[in-house]
Design a protein that fits this description.
5 helices, globular
Length: 372
C-alpha cells in the first residue's frame, strides 16, 4: 500500500512532504494586474511563510507575507499576493516585478522551498534566505495579459493566457442535467459505469466522478460561478439555467451555440461569455459544491442541453486530489494514473481574449463590460 501511495503522490507533486509551491504568477503589467499565487497542503500554518522578491543584482526588493487563504481546492490551500498585499503595490501604480527579478518561497523554518526566475534570466542571491543560491528560470509569459502557471507542484511552468488566480478547475454545479441514453441524470448522481451522450450521438461510459467544495466569500466577482440563463446561447439552449465554474469550457460555433459569432466549433471559458444577455456571474454565492465526470477521452457532452466538456484529466486536477481520491481514481483506471491522463482535447480552445475579440467583431451586444 505504501508503495502505491508513494507512486501516486509522486505523479501528482513529486513528493508527499512538499511544503508548498508558487502555483501561478503574473509579472507583466500594472500593480493591480500582477500577482503571485502560492499553494500549500491543506491546513498548513503559513503565518511564518513569505515570498521574497529579489532583483537582478541578488539583493532583496521586498518580502511579502502570504496573508489569508483565498480558498481550499482539493487538498491545497491557496494564497494570493497582489495589490491588496502590504508592500506589493507601488504609489505610481507601476508593476512591482521586473523581467530580471526572481521569487523565493520561504517556509516557516526559513528554508527556501523554491527560488525561481523568468524571461530567460537567472539571479544569484547575495543576501537573505536565498543567499548563495541561483534561481531556476521557469519560462516566459510573452503576452502582456498572460501568466506562468504550474500544475505539477512547481516542477514545470507554462504560459497561461487566461490568468486564473485562486480559482477551482472547470466544473458543474449540483442540479446540472447530464444527457444519458435514458434521459437526463443529475451530475451529482452520476457514478462510474453510467453512460453519457456525446456530440456525435454516441454513448460513452463514465470512468470516474469528482466533487469538491469552493468557498466564495473572499473570491473576486470575476472568479465567481457563471450562470448561463435559459435560452442564452440559442433558443432552447440551455433548456434551463446552467451554473458552471468560470474556467469550464463551453462549446461555441456548434449545436446552434453562438454560431453567428463563431464560424467554427471551439471551446471557450464560460467567464468569457459573461455580459451576454442572460449570462452573469453569481455574486451572492458564499460557497459551491462542484461536480465533474471523467470519460476515457475528452468529450463534448450535454448539460441542460448545452454542449460543454467532460473532465479533462490533467496535472491540475491531480494536484487537487487528496490521497483517498487519488487511490479511487487509480483503481478506476486499472491502477495506472499516468495512462489515464487526457491527451487530446475534444475541440480547439479559444482564450478569453480571442473569445471577446470574436464577439466584438460580430457585434454581439453585451449588458456590461467583459473586461474584468
Amino acid at each position: 500500500m505504501q508503495t502505491l501511495l508513494s507512486r501516486l503522490l509522486e505523479v501528482v507533486c513529486g513528493s508527499y512532504d512538499m511544503p508548498g509551491y508558487i502555483s501561478e504568477f503574473r509579472y507583466y503589467g500594472l500593480s493591480n494586474e500582477e500577482f503571485i499565487e502560492v499553494a500549500v497542503p491543506t491546513g498548513t500554518d503559513v503565518s511564518a511563510y513569505s515570498v521574497v522578491l529579489y532583483q537582478g543584482n541578488g539583493t532583496i526588493v521586498e518580502s511579502y507575507a502570504l496573508g489569508y487563504s483565498q480558498g481550499t481546492f482539493g487538498n491545497q490551500d491557496v494564497y494570493v499576493i497582489d495589490s491588496d498585499t502590504a508592500g506589493f503595490s507601488s504609489m505610481s501604480g507601476a508593476g512591482e516585478m521586473y523581467s530580471d527579478d526572481a521569487l523565493a518561497l520561504v517556509d516557516d523554518t526559513g528554508a527556501v522551498v523554491q527560488f525561481i526566475s523568468y524571461w530567460g534570466n537567472t539571479v544569484t542571491a547575495v543576501e537573505g534566505p536565498a543567499a548563495g543560491m541561483t534561481s531556476t528560470d521557469v519560462g516566459t509569459a510573452s503576452d502582456g495579459g498572460s501568466s506562468l502557471q504550474s500544475d505539477d507542484g512547481g516542477a514545470t511552468y507554462y504560459q497561461q493566457y487566461d490568468t486564473n488566480k485562486d480559482v477551482i478547475p472547470a466544473c458543474y454545479a449540483p442540479g446540472s442535467r447530464i444527457s444519458t441514453p435514458d434521459g437526463f441524470k443529475l451530475v451529482e448522481d452520476l457514478k462510474a459505469g453510467d453512460l453519457v451522450v456525446t456530440l456525435d450521438q454516441q454513448t460513452v461510459p463514465v470512468l470516474w466522478v469528482w466533487s469538491g467544495n469552493q468557498p466564495l466569500d473572499d473570491v473576486a466577482l470575476h472568479q465567481k460561478p457563471v450562470l448561463l440563463g435559459k435560452n442564452s446561447l440559442a433558443p432552447g439552449v440551455p433548456n434551463r439555467d446552467l451554473i458552471v465554474s468560470g474556467q469550464h469550457r463551453i462549446a461555441v460555433g456548434i449545436c446552434g451555440q453562438l454560431e453567428d459569432a463563431f464560424p467554427t466549433a471551439a471551446f471557450v471559458p464560460a467567464k468569457a461569455l459573461v455580459g451576454l444577455p442572460g449570462i452573469r456571474h453569481m455574486a451572492g454565492k458564499r460557497s459551491m459544491q462542484w461536480h465533474h465526470f471523467y470519460c476515457a477521452n475528452h468529450q463534448v457532452a450535454f448539460a441542460n442541453a448545452v454542449a460543454s466538456e467532460s473532465l479533462f484529466l490533467g496535472a491540475q486536477i491531480l494536484s487537487n486530489l487528496d490521497v483517498q481520491q487519488m487511490m479511487h481514481l487509480s483503481e478506476s483506471l486499472g491502477g495506472s494514473l499516468g495512462s489515464g491522463l487526457t491527451k487530446d482535447i475534444a475541440l480547439p480552445v479559444l482564450s478569453r481574449r480571442k473569445t471577446l475579440d470574436a464577439l466584438k467583431a460580430r457585434g454581439c451586444k453585451r449588458t456590461h463590460s467583459l473586461a474584468a
